[in-house]
């Protein structure tokens, strides 16, 4: 039996790539897409293949038998779609970033209440998962850390979901620390970036970039840099494919692809 999939956000940079991936995968079946309500734009590629595009998620979930929702939209709509899907016991694979902690906690609780799998991953690139994992190891030895994330200039959320997740993973192993000089002063606001428990996060947005992150550790007489670059959006597809396969056997919420990979 093929896994029946709906993709929300099929016209986006990630959505287009995900549509191709799902259509190319013999074990997957794309049964529909969900596009935004306010734009009546045809999606010719989907029309040719006879794949319905719904403007209303409720209608989509009513009309189609769905195993997994893949959401690649914006946090506001993604939250509504995921909540609706989980309440109907439709599993979710979510790449969208920019959720509040409260939204993440509510989706977690809803997945549990409905015994339904939900993987939310701020980054699906396997190299990025390793970059975060290696950073967590390095942070045990080097507690002075600056994260520099660089993305294309059409990204709406900052800092990136990956940078937030990296800081969260590091905080699990690093004691709280205020970095830099205790009397340090910003003579231009924002010069030192954001601070998460003392870890500094800097967000760069430029045309030409896709998704990149460096985690720089400083110690006595040395620095260590752990760096990952996504050159295109195909780099995320292997992780989405794996998540769809894994979520079929899950009955709860998982935040981060590292939790469904064997990194031991
Ligand atoms: N997890 C990862 O590995 C990963 C990788 C790349 C991007 N992202 C995230 O994925 C999301 C999408 O990124 P993108 O670069 O494709 O953005 P994009 O702007 O190209 O695409 C977003 C799509 O969502 C659609 N959309 C907006 N509101 C909608 C609604 N209410 N219903 C349905 N569709 C709606 C837009 O029309 C657009 O087509 C972002 O949150 C981004 O941060 C995650
Ligand atoms: O918006 C993007 O493009 C990306 N966002 C993710 C994030 O916020 O971490 C990472 C991959 C690309």
Explain this structure.
The active site is at 151 (proton donor/acceptor), 155 (proton donor). The structure is a single chain. Helices cover 33% and strands 25% of the residues. It is built from 8 helices and 12 strands. The chain has helices at 13-24, 44-48, 57-63, 75-87, 101-113, 126-139, 161-171, 237-247; strands at 3-8, 28-34, 53-54, 68-71, 91-94, 118-120, 144-151, 194-196, 199-205, 211-219, 222-230, 253-255. The chain has a 7-stranded parallel sheet with strand order 3-2-1-4-5-6-12, sandwiched between helices. Strand 10 and strand 11 (222-230) form a beta hairpin. Helix 4 (75-87) runs parallel beside helix 5 and helix 6 packs parallel to helix 7. The chain is elongated. The two termini are 32 Å apart. Nicotinamide-adenine-dinucleotide binds at residues 8-9, 11-15, 34-36, 72-74, 77, 95-98, 121-124, 157, 236.
Quick summary of this structure?
This protein is of the alpha/beta class and 264 residues long. 33% of the residues lie in helices and 25% in strands. α4 (75-87) packs parallel to α5 (101-113) and α6 runs parallel beside α7 (161-171).
How far apart are the termini?
32 Å
The value of Rg in angstroms is 19 Å
Given this structure, which CATH class of the largest domain is correct?
A: Alpha Beta
Task: Name the CATH superfamily classification of the largest domain.
Answer: NAD(P)-binding Rossmann-like Domain
Structural class by helix and strand composition: alpha/beta
Counted beta strands: 12
Order of helices and strands: EHEHEHEHEHEHEHEEEEHE
The third-level CATH topology of the largest domain is Rossmann fold
Number of domains: 2
The distinct bound ligands, ions and cofactors come out as:
nicotinamide-adenine-dinucleotide, ligand LLHOTIJI
Give the mean pLDDT. Answer: 96
Low-confidence stretches: none
Give me the number of helical elements: 8
CATH architecture of the largest domain, please? 3-Layer(aba) Sandwich
Protein name: 4-hydroxy-tetrahydrodipicolinate reductase
EC number: 1.17.1.8
Domain Dihydrodipicolinate reductase C-terminal: 127-261
Catalytic activity: (S)-2,3,4,5-tetrahydrodipicolinate + NADP(+) + H2O = (2S,4S)-4-hydroxy-2,3,4,5-tetrahydrodipicolinate + NADPH + H(+); (S)-2,3,4,5-tetrahydrodipicolinate + NAD(+) + H2O = (2S,4S)-4-hydroxy-2,3,4,5-tetrahydrodipicolinate + NADH + H(+)
